[in-house]
């Protein structure tokens, strides 16, 4: 597995994967009108990709075969984890762990997107303190 920086050609994959994963993985999001969510959150994701770091886990031989990605940023006192995604076929192989290891810079993390399956306690091995704050996705 290779971990690399985001390329503009990855934008469609990252955007579509995040939109569908978040919509299907969050009961809160499922309450939102689908068209409204798709339009507004597509814009939000593209703004995140324009201002944040995005790392992708890919096949060693084929950079375009993407296993997963993480969108994050480091603010003055905290790290912000916007989204962590691993394709179902590649889960339970340490990909999420490898991506998270590359993002940790501070001792405190804020999570801007939370799915029903994700457990904040899982981040304790990477950061000392973790909180959920959806407003960090629209800051700046």
Can you describe this structure in just a few lines?
With 140 residues, the protein is α/β, with parallel strands linked by helices. It has one domain (2-137): 3-Layer(aba) Sandwich (Aminopeptidase).
Structural commentary:
The protein has about 140 residues and is of the alpha/beta class. The chain has a single domain, classed as Gcn5-related N-acetyltransferase (GNAT) (Aminopeptidase), CATH 3.40.630.30. Helices cover about 35% and strands about 25% of the residues. The protein has 4 helices and 6 strands, in the order E-H-H-H-E-E-E-H-E-E. It has helices spanning about 10-25, 25-30, 35-50, 95-105; strands spanning about 1-5, 55-60, 65-75, 80-85, 110, 130. The protein has a 6-stranded mixed β-sheet with strand order 1-2-3-4-5-6, sandwiched between helices. Strand 2 and strand 3 (about 65-75) form a beta hairpin. Helix 1 (about 10-25) crosses helix 3 (about 35-50). The chain is globular. It starts with a strand and ends in an 8-residue tail after the last strand. The model has no long low-confidence stretch (mean pLDDT about 95).
